[in-house]
Design goal:
It contains five helices and no strands. The protein is mostly helical.
């Protein structure tokens, strides 16, 4: 591996995920005629901005992580996740179909939860509480999306 990933790389992807999520949820709100879904997407768009600000703060605060928890195998795993997510972000920028957009919404939330769990596994314990709080929020977003998906099918 030529270059070790950094926590900054992860937060840059997380910030990009949240930015894309905000734009995506605003667009989904415009695409739906369902009033409840419109409200949900507007709430999710606002939550994405709040999370983006949190990740920017984490990045500025220079969260340290345990280098002994990050071996070559783990680095390769994280590099693969980062690469795949960047690819997904690039492919998901111009969604016009509501159904596909809904699937992107679900994937955005899943990717965010995955990254948060990975970050939690390597940072100091002092950051667990705030990360756990965001994970719970993201899980509630995912549950709300699944609930609506069941209702519209």
């Amino acid at each position: 591996m030529s270059e070790m990933f950094s926590l900054e790389d992860i937060f840059n992807v997380m910030i990009e995920l949240e930015s894309l999520g905000n734009v995506h949820y605003n667009k989904m709100s415009e695409l739906t005629q369902n009033a409840k879904l419109k409200v949900l997407f507007e709430q999710l768009a606002k939550a994405e901005l709040a999370h983006k600000e949190l990740y920017q703060k984490f990045k500025v605060d220079m969260i340290n992580f345990s280098h002994e928890k990050v071996n070559d195998e783990y680095q390769e795993y994280m590099d693969a996740l980062l690469s795949q997510t960047v690819r997904f972000l690039n492919q998901s920028r111009d969604i016009k179909d509501f159904e596909k957009g809904f699937d992107v919404s679900v994937q955005l939330e899943k990717d965010t939860i995955l990254f948060l769990n990975e970050i939690r596994s390597i940072v100091d314990a002092g950051f667990y509480e705030v990360i756990d709080k965001v994970i719970v929020q993201e899980q509630s977003h995912l549950k709300a999306l699944y609930k609506f998906k069941e209702e519209i099918h």
